[in-house]
Amino acid sequence: MAKKTAQQVIADAQKRDAKSLSEAIPTMHVKVYSPFKVYFDGEAQSISAVNDTGPFDILPQHHNFMTLLNACEVIVRTSHTEEKMQINKGVMHVKADQVIVFLDV
Question: Which fold has domain 26-103?
Fold first, then answer.
């Protein structure tokens, strides 16, 4: 069995730590879609948008919530990426760690 270098040991530890950290961060299921296209469908750590009150964020374990969205950039953040979608209008429904955003209504 070949010995690992110090750099390999450190790299392995960083991978383990990153994986366990991403597993420890709570997520929610987010689906952003319109009648003819799905823009995002998966696990996310947060979603940001704008309604008549102003900008807001939804995080896991958010209370039930429903709102009309204004023209804005919807941002869905996952452990690896940040998906940005420019919208004209939409409806957002949040319930039990599930967020549904229906666009072009």
Answer: ATP Synthase; domain 1 (2.60.15)
